[in-house]
Amino acid sequence: MADAPPPASPQAAPAAAPAPAANGDGNRRIRTILFIVLAVLAVIAIGYGVRWLTYGRYIESTDDAYLRADSVTVSPRVNGYIDQVYVLDNQTVKAGDPLVHIDLRNYKAVLSQQDASVDARNADIRAAENQITQQQASVESAQAQLVGAQANAKYARDEADRYKNLRDQGVETDERFAQAVNERNQTAAAVLGAAANVKVAERQLDTLSSQVAQVHAQLEAAKAASNTARLNLDDTLIRASIDGRVGDKTAQVGQYVQPGTRLMSVVPVQDVYLVANYKETQVRRVRVGQKATVKVDALGSEEIPGVVVSFAPGTGAQFALLPPENATGNFIKIVQRVPVRIKLNPSKEVAARLVPGLSVSVDIDTRSNDH
């Protein structure tokens, strides 16, 4: 028969008593951790609260903002066929660099024709001036003839008076007196003819002077036409008007262009600026000269300093193709946006990567205007 198990010792039962103490330690540890977490959260909340009171509430932010540049559209002033294109897409150019050349043969021929017209008018003026010189001599000759005729007339009058006295005295005959009277009348008529010749010569001189003035006017018109032809010839070479980078190029050799045809654009990427569209409720404290912080989506988290330089003279809706008309129908108030222009101050490395059209987010610090 197997031996029976020994009876249990009366002191073995209380061995599990320490378990409540271990649970108490765990609860205290959890409470301590929770207290620490709550304390950290409270510190963080206080820190955020202090930051908001001292900084955050003064910052006006928007992501409705884009980089811009005042690009220049390159267009010809004359028509013709393009025979040379000097630039490539995205090429950097300086003001005055040649961009496109238009065939100049027609304009060169027109300039030669206009220069010939100028030379012809100059020749006409010289010929007219020579005629005036000749006519002045004719006037002087007519005046001299008038003086001679007047002298003859005076002599004939004196002779007629003398023969009249002699006839009255019976010394001379009536026939001789009649002859003297006839000579007096002839010389008087000669005086009238000489005076008429002087007037005709002087009027001819005035006519030639008017012709010279007319030819001078024609010369000025010919010079103006020549200058226009020279400008057209110069305009066959299209140059860059500003520094920048070539974009949207459509010019091709052999293409026929007319004045105003869009050939390309020159974008001044070195002068990129920012236009941020702020809600009308955000611009209460925004002022010119306040500092801004800009983040460009294409550059990640890198910040670019800036400064507010101006406000648009109206909201974006006012410059839309069809501005809203709120005086008709049911009215629903919509918060408008005001374009704010911001000048950027990037480093050279960052500036080389900025191009118009990039999306950005902007923070404007308005603390300087809070009272």
The chain-level mean pLDDT equals: 85
CATH architecture of the largest domain: Orthogonal Bundle
Q: Report the span from N to C terminus.
A: 104 Å
At CATH level 3, the topology of the largest domain is Helix Hairpins
Low-confidence stretches: 7-17
Describe the largest sheet: 6 strands, antiparallel, barrel
Helical proportion, percent range: 40-55%
Overall geometry comes to elongated
Assembly state (oligomeric): single chain
What Rg do the Cα atoms give? 53 Å
How many H/I helical runs? 4
Note the main attributes of this structure.
371 residues, alpha+beta, Elongation Factor Tu (Ef-tu), domain 3, OB fold (Dihydrolipoamide Acetyltransferase, E2P), Helix Hairpins, 3 domains, six-stranded antiparallel beta barrel, four-stranded antiparallel beta sheet, 4 helices, 44% helix
